[in-house]
Design brief:
Length: 113
């Protein structure tokens, strides 16, 4: 099964719902459903519920639309240098790979919380 055929799941350990609509992404590469993202990540200071990382930077937590419109996709990267677009694409692929194949090295706080 290819990476793109898999669905992202909420990384909140008691949820694990398939994500749709909007989701919350953290700088530590975790993703949460709107309910748990808006609730758990709105605390100050914010702490990732999956790995306990401090999330204090301006872009450490972002809310994203999982199925953006064609117009949004056409405009969001317009004007960026090709190497920047490729770097963004590479990071997005790495995020997906991490989500669908989480590390299994016995860390209790990795992805599954």
């Amino acid at each position: 099964m290819s990476v793109c055929e898999d669905m992202l799941l909420c990384n909140y350990c008691k949820c694990r719902v398939k994500l749709s609509g909007y989701a919350w992404v953290t700088a530590c590469s975790h993703i949460f459903c709107d309910q748990h993202g808006s609730g758990e990540l709105s605390r100050s200071p914010a702490v990732c519920p999956a790995c306990n990382s401090a999330l204090s930077g301006k872009l450490d937590i972002v809310c994203i639309e999982l199925s953006p419109s064609e117009e949004h996709k056409a405009m969001v990267l317009a004007g960026l240098r090709p190497e920047t677009v490729l770097d963004i694409s590479s990071r997005a692929l790495s995020f997906w790979t991490y989500q669908v194949n989480p590390p299994q090295v016995g860390h209790q706080h990795d992805v599954l919380g």
